[in-house]
Amino acid sequence: MKLKKGDLVELITGEDKGKRGKILEIVKDKDKHQTRVVVEGANLAKKHKKTQRADRPGGIIDLPNSLHISNISLVCPKCGKLAKIRREKTEGKRTRICKLCNEAID
Ligand SMILES: [Zn+2]
Predict the structure, then answer these.
(1) What is the rounded CA–CA span in Å between residue 7 and residue 10?
(2) 76-91 pLDDT, tens per residue?
(3) Which residues lie at CB < 5 A from ion ligand 1?
(4) Would you say residue 60 has pLDDT above 50?
(5) Is 47 within 8 Å of 15 (Cβ atoms)?
(6) Which pLDDT score is estimated for 18?
(7) Bridge partners (DSSP) listed for residue 86
(8) Domain spans of the chain?
């Protein structure tokens, strides 16, 4: 899934399931499976504090309210539904298209 800063997303798991917000930050680890995002208004980490390792120094993974990318889904700003994306290349530029309403998301 390709996400960008400023994208509207919905939380699809956990206690905050259904909550929507914009991506404030994307944190990419060397390991791509560790991509995390900070979503406006979502603060799952607080609720799962016991599993957090706050003592790890400088670990960007430990951003207070970052979410694993698998916990969120892109919301189409045009139709407001959870977007299924197809990618199109027009004039050398990659565009994300919502499969539901056929509108470009970028
Ligand atoms: Zn749409």
Answers:
(1) 10
(2) 999 999 999 999 998 8
(3) 76, 78-79, 98, 100-101
(4) no
(5) yes
(6) 94
(7) 97
(8) 8-75, 79-106
Tell me the C-alpha distance between 76 and 103, whole Å: 9
Q: Which residues, 6+ apart, have CB-to-CB distance to 9 below 8 Å?
A: 3, 20, 21, 22, 23, 37, 39, 72, 73, 74, 75
Q: Output 16-24 pairs: Cβ under 8 A, ≥24 positions apart.
A: 16/42, 16/43, 16/44, 20/75
Amino acid at 10: E
For residue 104, report the distance from its CA to the centre of ligand 1, in Å: 8
Residue 78 CA to ligand 1 centre (angstroms): 5
pLDDT at 48: 45
What's this model's pTM, rounded to 2 decimal places? 0.74
- Provide the β-strand partners of residue 73: 10
- Residues 7-48: tens digit of each pLDDT: 999 999 988 899 999 999 998 877 666 788 999 887 644 444
Q: Exposed, middle or buried, 95 (CB in 10 Å: 0-12/13-18/19+)?
A: middle
